[in-house]
Write a structure and sequence with these properties.
This protein is α/β, with parallel strands linked by helices. The protein is 30% helix and 23% strand. The strands form five sheets. Strands 1, 2, 3, 4, 5, 6 and 16 form a seven-stranded mixed β-sheet that branches. Strands 17-18-21-20-19 form a five-stranded antiparallel β-sheet, with helices on both faces. A hairpin with a 4-residue loop joins strand 20 (409-416) and strand 21. The radius of gyration is 24 Å and the shape is globular. The structure holds flavin-adenine dinucleotide. The site of flavin-adenine dinucleotide has 35 residues, from helix 1, strand 2, helix 2, helix 3 and strand 4.
Length: 480
């Protein structure tokens, strides 16, 4: 049998896994990535990057149409074939050789094939020809296998050749009509992209849109989709789906939706059905529960700790940037533990992913965009925080009126009144995504409101909303 030894063996080579390997190697360890598809994973080829490439042209065009002078110059509509071609460039035509070059350049090894745990610190990799390579980890195995689309149990759906986000982000042409089942971020983004291409889009969602977000954000995105001509069938569930004669029919309350394609975007399941979890006493098909140093919890790590998980498969925050943040902590802590260095696992320490609990930034790249970090008002209340909610109309900010005629947007900050710090921020409006990092710094840094008064936003930028939020909150007087 062909067995190779490394300090760290990582199952998966998505963007998250790459970061674990990189940090471990920089920390002085050897590392190998195991990949069954494309190095770079979902985000690079079928998720973040291609979806944003599909959305950008429409957002730029609409932004230009909102500015007098530019509006007159921009009279056409988006050219879908040019957008698909630009997207093909983003995903390197689904060729991962540049990512493989990066892996090798970073001093990381790569084994192609399907990896499965085979007991403690062992991973067996089966390649396309059925040959098996055994990898033995001296210190750690990290599971970074990601997630798969969830296919809801709707009669007929699986047989109707539904699109998952993979088909929607890799299509080379837009269908004339598309039904989207789901009301989350992915559903809203892809509905926006295809509606921009001239596709007749219908969203069918069990609830409203963007469930976990501030209600005003969901309302603005709902209105934005309606303006794009998207038909919304909300608070309803399909009874059945069937495809005949090429078209798909979704049965809903006696008023069916017909479309050329049906996209299912109803959430994710862990990619853990066939990774050998049973060989180490874990439940096949489960998400992997981890502590803040990304060690898998439970008896599997009761002795010398060795099994870690990062990224989507932990179910902590299904976002690339948050997975990569976990990966940096995991790679560093694995090296520290392996080499007997000090481990800093206190909250906000070097080796923990504390922000997963309190400060996850997220952008929904619809039109308008939603950019949020930390807690919504409702989540703060549920967490028992004595909070005060401050709202401000972004359209009233001078910088916003420069960006677009009649700019429409909204900002909210949620203040923890006992600590005098911000625990959540949500912005809605055109181009608010680029305003999010300041909010993230305020939440993570727990910057006291008194000090924030000294962070002066430049005039006339949209960031002046920070000053307006503080003014609305009110400045304490020295007699308070
Ligand atoms: C349409 C869409 C748009 C999105 N947009 C954004 C966005 O804008 N921003 C954002 O932050 N997030 C976005 N996400 C979420 C983001 O894609 C995921 O959070 C991210 O890809 C998770 O990274 P990961 O490394 O955990 O998993 P993946 O990217 O899925 O990587 C896992 C890798 O492991 C490999 N693998 C799995 N099992 C095995 C095995 N047994 N053996 C060998 N290899 C294996 C897979 O082939 C894959 O390459 C989006 C998701 C979707 C669906």
């Amino acid at each position: 049998m062909n067995a190779r030894e490394y300090d760290v063996v990582i199952i998966g080579a998505g963007a998250v896994a790459e970061n674990v390997a990189d940090r471990a190697v920089q920390g002085g360890l050897s590392a190998v990535l195991v990949e069954s598809e494309l190095v770079g994973g979902e985000c690079s080829y079928w998720a973040c990057m291609p979806s944003k490439a599909l959305l950008r042209a429409g957002n730029v065009l609409r932004a230009a149409q909102r500015v007098g002078g530019a509006r007159e110059a921009v009279t056409g509509s988006v050219d879908p074939s040019a957008v698909f071609a630009r997207r093909n460039g983003f995903v390197h035509d689904w060729d991962d050789s540049s990512q493989v070059d990066w892996v090798h350049g970073a001093g990381i090894d790569l084994v192609r094939g399907h990896g499965r745990l085979a007991g403690v610190r062992r991973v067996e990799v089966t390649d396309a020809d059925g040959a098996v390579t055994t990898l033995v980890a001296r210190h750690a195995v990290v599971v970074s296998a990601g997630s798969d689309p969830l296919l809801p149990d709707i009669p007929g759906l699986a047989d109707a050749a539904p699109w998952t986000p993979r088909e929607a982000t890799s299509a080379q042409a837009a269908p004339a009509s598309l039904a989207v089942i789901g009301g989350g971020v992915v559903a809203a983004e892809l509905a926006t992209a295809y509606a921009t291409f001239g596709t007749r889009v219908t969203i069918v969602a069990r609830g409203g849109l963007l469930g976990g977000q501030e209600p005003f954000a969901a309302e603005a995105v709902t209105a934005g989709l309606e303006e794009l001509g998207v038909a919304l069938r909300l608070h309803t569930s399909p009874a059945a789906v069937r495809r005949d004669g090429g078209r798909v029919t979704i049965e809903i309350d006696g008023d069916p939706v017909e479309a050329d394609e049906v996209l299912v975007a109803t959430g994710r399941v862990p990619r853990s059905a066939d990774i050998g979890l049973d060989t180490v006493g874990l439940e096949t098909g489960d998400w992997l529960d981890v502590d803040d140093t990304l060690l898998v919890t439970g008896p599997v790590n009761a002795g010398e700790p060795w099994l870690y998980a990062v990224g989507d498969i932990t179910h902590r925050a299904l976002l690339t940037h948050q997975g990569k943040y976990q990966a940096r902590a995991a790679g560093d802590v694995i090296a520290a533990r392996a080499l007997g260095r000090r481990v800093d696992d206190a909250p906000w320490g070097v080796h923990v992913a504390t922000a997963d609990h309190r400060a996850v930034p997220q952008v929904t790249f619809t039109d308008p965009e939603v950019a949020s970090v930390g807690l919504t008002a409702a989540a703060a209340e549920r967490a028992g925080i004595r909070s005060r909610v401050i709202d401000y109309d972004l359209g009233q900010v001078a910088g916003a009126s420069v960006q677009a005629d009649g700019y429409r947007g909204q900002a909210r900050m949620v203040v923890d009144e006992d600590r005098g710090v911000i625990v959540g921020v949500t912005f809605v409006g055109q181009d608010v995504s680029e305003m999010l990092q300041a909010a993230t710094i305020a939440v993570v840094g727990e910057v006291p409101l008194d000090r924030l008064w000294h962070a002066v936003p430049a005039y006339p930028t949209m960031n002046e909303v920070w000053l307006r939020l503080l003014e609305t909150y009110g400045r304490p007087t020295l007699d308070d």
